[in-house]
Amino acid sequence: xxxxxxxxxxxxxxxxxxxxxxxxxxxxxxxxxxxxxxxxxxxxxxxxxxxxxxxxxxxxxxxxxxxxxxxxxxxxxxxxxxxxxxxxxxxxxxxxxxxxxxxxxxxxxxxxxxxxxxxxxxxxxxxxxxxxxxxxxxxxxxxxxxxxxxxxxxxxxxxxxxxxxxxxxxxxxxxxxxxxxxxxxxxxxxxxxxxxxxxxxxxxxxxxxxxxxxxxxxxxxxxxxxxxxxxxxxxxxxxxxxxxxxxxxxxxxxxxxxxxxxxxxxxxxxxxxxxxxxxxxxxxxxxxxxxxxxxxxxxxxxxxxxxxxxxxxxxxxxxxxxxxxxxxxxxxxxxxxxxxxxxxxxxxxxxxxxxxxxxxxxxxxxxxxxxxxxxxxxxxxxxxxxxxxxxxxxxxxxxxxxxxxxxxxxxxxxxxxxxxxxxxxxxxxxxxxxxxxxxxxxxxxxxxxxxxxxxxxxxxxxxxxxxxxxxxxxxxxxxxxxxxxxxxxxxxxxxxxxxxxxxxxxxxxxxxxxxxxxxxxxxxxxxxxxxxxxxxxxxxxxxxxxxxxxxxxxxxxxxxxxxxxxxxxxxxxxxxxxxxxxxxxxxxxxxxxxxxxxxxxxxxxxxxxxxxxxxxxxxxxxxxxxxxxxxxxxxxxxxxxxxxxxxxxxxxxxxxxxxxxxxxxxxxxxxxxxxxxxxxxxxxxxxxxxxxxxxxxxxxxxxxxxxxxxxxxxxxxxxxxxxxxxxxxxxxxxxxxxxxxxxxxxxxxxxxxxxxxxxxxxxxxxxxxxxxxxxxxxxxxxxxxxxxxxxxxxxxxxxxxxxxxxxxxxxxxxxxxxxxx
Length: 821
Prior knowledge:
Elements: H1 2-7, H2 30-37, H3 40-61, H4 63-87, H5 94-135, H6 140-145, H7 149-189, H8 193-229, H9 248-283, H10 296-336, H11 343-365, H12 382-408, H13 417-443, H14 448-456, H15 461-474, H16 477-495, H17 509-520, H18 524-546, H19 551-598, H20 610-651, H21 664-678, H22 680-703, H23 709-747, H24 757-776, H25 779-799, H26 804-820
Helix pairs in contact: 3-4, 3-8, 4-8, 4-11, 5-7, 5-9, 5-10, 5-21, 5-26, 7-8, 7-9, 7-10, 7-18, 8-10, 8-11, 8-18, 9-10, 9-20, 9-21, 9-24, 9-25, 10-11, 10-17, 10-18, 10-19, 10-21, 11-12, 11-18, 12-13, 13-16, 13-17, 13-19, 14-15, 14-23, 15-23, 15-24, 16-17, 16-19, 17-19, 18-19, ...
């Protein structure tokens, strides 16, 4: 039996196992092609020179920056170790490699096309930003530092393009490892469930370490470069507390790329999944990932471009934006409190995420492949193994967070402030753990909610849908309570830290909330590892099914796939929670900036004012309209896939008997083309709406002598949109994950097993849930990015001192460029 499993043989009927590549052309980005052509010794010398220059710049800025650079470089070598370890594993029999090559070619081809489109849009927007900065008036900080318009413009555009480039690289890294690890996990599943789990985790860990490390390193190198180049803190130059304001372009570029990567990748993966399931499972009655399904390769490609590439860019943006916003808040608070050395408060976020790389690496290595009894013994629960690693990471994160606060946030003016901020970080870490646990409870089929949902399938398709919707609605309660307690606790701890301004007013409340957000993200690398584990396990299961391995091997990959569904859902819940905490900072930063440039107090938003209340209504409506357009995009693309799959089954009847091969490439081409077109409409809606509304209400405010009306309406819109978005995203994410795992639970043999009427009803629920959890579900995260984008562009608009007509011309041009791109 062992020999049969090792050789991929079994009692099933022998069938053809050759699969055509979707594309024959290499789609590796040119920058990576150039690096591979350089001689190894020359490349080593160049890297050493770069490291020397980087450390010299870091040492000129701050010893803390040197510490951050050291951790990032060590993490780079650790990621190389993980890569070599994963790639050293075998790829299994030839039929597995052929399927993996088809998936890889399709994923890389779509990535090249999608990011080519995004890069063109980014360059157009960079020109617009450069034009705006060259004609707008200098800010008070720039005037004090002697920065001219052109210098400020080129700094911002360079930061924007660097952020966009790094976000794209983060996405590529996530996809690169997944399309190479999937076949190795499939091969390992023929021998051991524990080995397959370890390969999937370490492959996801490589991507996570690179993404987090690149976000930290990018912000740190920009900070150090600007510090040295501008001569910060020398007489007549910029103050160090104002330096983080120059980094906003980096976060803006990352947000821009992540927005369209998430939209395009989400539409691709779920349209292919829905189309494959509706015809393959429901109409033809064939198993999931069956090689006879013409859409199966498109479905497996979608896991990589949607769940790996898009999620890598997404988390990169989240971490970069959180670091920059916390640096700005730390500098502002240090300036108000007249702290002698503010560098600790400014660089604290970089140190926290540097320690994140360390503790997450330990958590990844804690998952080992030893002591596995093999295929004949019961499979150990992979979720328990992953939770053990997460527990190790959490404990180490608590310790390192305490060390970081004592090292960097201790000040003689308030000796106990560091302890309050350490407790804020503990609040954030506990919030992250609570979100992971709550999402797991509602989406894992080992718990009652999913089993109840599966039981509802026994009475038909309609009752399954009703039960899934009610489960999703119920799942919003506990997370909202957790977020509420976290915000109040963190704000109160920061407020009572003892840090006060010249007037004796406490100033640490907002920074306490920022520290709690950092605490939530202090294990981000391990959480991203669990997220990347999901699509890799899903792809491995598809390769096993398509290469027609024994049922015992498929059982292992099915267990890993079900756990992967839960880890993907918990990661999205984690992202929603961190975005909710960060959004509170966004509102405050927005009002502070408007007050600073308008020289008018702006402390509150009164929704009793009719125009402001209308802004809130429009913001709430934006969430529902955006989600509707995202689901509609999936539906339209899925219809094209369904029609194509039906056509192939009709015109090629030999497909069902393995006498004819499906045209996999046709479905890949349909989904790729449609997803690129469909991502523009919802993305443009989310970016443009706040600017248009603010612009219109500013005109109204001009005629009614209310100079801040436009800014107040936009603030109300962002607030209501975020609140509605939190609830909508929680509902969609949890309901979609629960529907998926209810189907998986039935496929284990419960309630009639595969092919039963109960299973068909569960497949319908899973089909409905697919666009919920992977396309419309990330609506909050995408719309938070859009809020940042709109906030940033609105800031340019509000601070410009040019005439009203020039405003109108430039912003109309911006909108037209965005739409036509």
